[in-house]
């Protein structure tokens, strides 16, 4: 389903001559193709599933956020703006992200459900969050909340 959405968006960007959108979607599709090739090596001939695609999109957003901070430190605001535009384009293909309060509630629920009590349990909590909220949660932010709750 996500693949179809990406291909349709590529066609629309071509038709409408949206250069930034077109280049960003091509980057997404190239990264997806790389993941599919790796999956074939593991015996998965169908390619990666939507959950892994969402994870890939999330990592692409994280890379761009890191780039934005580096560009801003270097005084390259025009490049930071371009990265932000790419983030906005990538987010079109992702489900709605959880807010701060929703992340806190989800972390509290998982900690309670797993009976986690110390930082040693952080791996289990994060794994459970990734299973449940893949593509919908900023796991960097969730990690900080988990540490705060388990410390």
Order of helices and strands: HHHHHHH
Q: Round the mean pLDDT to the nearest integer and report it.
A: 89
Q: Determine and state the CATH class of the largest domain.
A: Mainly Alpha
Low-confidence stretches: none
Supply the number of structural domains: 2
Backbone CA Rg: 18 Å
**CATH superfamily of the largest domain, please?**
Uncharacterised protein YqeY/AIM41, N-terminal domain
So what's the oligomer here? single chain
Q: Based on DSSP secondary structure assignment, what is the total number of beta strands?
A: 0
Percent helix, as a range, is over 70%
What structural class is derived from the secondary structure elements?
Answer: mainly alpha
Distance between the termini: 40 Å
CATH architecture of the largest domain: Orthogonal Bundle
Q: What is the tally of helical segments?
A: 7
> Shape, please?
globular
State the major sheet: none
CATH topology of the largest domain: Hypothetical Protein Yqey, Chain: A, domain1
- Assess the beta-strand content as a share of residues: under 5%
Characterise this structure.
The protein is mostly helical and 151 residues long. The protein has helices at residues 2-16, 19-41, 50-73, 77-91, 100-114, 122-133, 139-150. It is globular, with a radius of gyration of 18 Å. 15% of the residues are buried. The protein folds into 2 domains: 2-91, Uncharacterised protein YqeY/AIM41, N-terminal domain (Hypothetical Protein Yqey, Chain: A, domain1, Orthogonal Bundle); 100-150, Arc Repressor Mutant, subunit A (Orthogonal Bundle). The protein is 77% helix and 0% strand. Helix 5 packs across helix 7. It contains 7 helices and no strands.
């Amino acid at each position: 389903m996500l693949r179809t959405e990406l291909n349709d968006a590529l066609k629309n960007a071509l038709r409408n001559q949206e250069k930034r959108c077109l280049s960003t979607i091509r980057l997404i599709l190239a990264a997806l193709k790389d993941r599919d090739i790796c999956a074939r090596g593991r015996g998965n001939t169908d390619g990666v599933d939507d959950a892994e695609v969402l994870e890939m999109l999330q990592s692409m957003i994280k890379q761009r956020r890191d780039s934005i901070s580096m560009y801003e430190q270097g005084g390259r605001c025009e490049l930071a703006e371009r990265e932000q535009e790419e983030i906005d384009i990538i987010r079109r293909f992702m489900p709605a992200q959880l807010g701060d309060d929703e992340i806190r509630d989800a972390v509290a629920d998982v900690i309670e459900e797993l009976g986690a009590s110390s930082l040693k349990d952080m791996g289990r909590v994060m794994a459970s969050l990734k299973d449940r909220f893949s593509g919908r949660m900023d796991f960097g932010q969730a990690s900080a909340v988990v540490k705060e709750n388990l410390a």
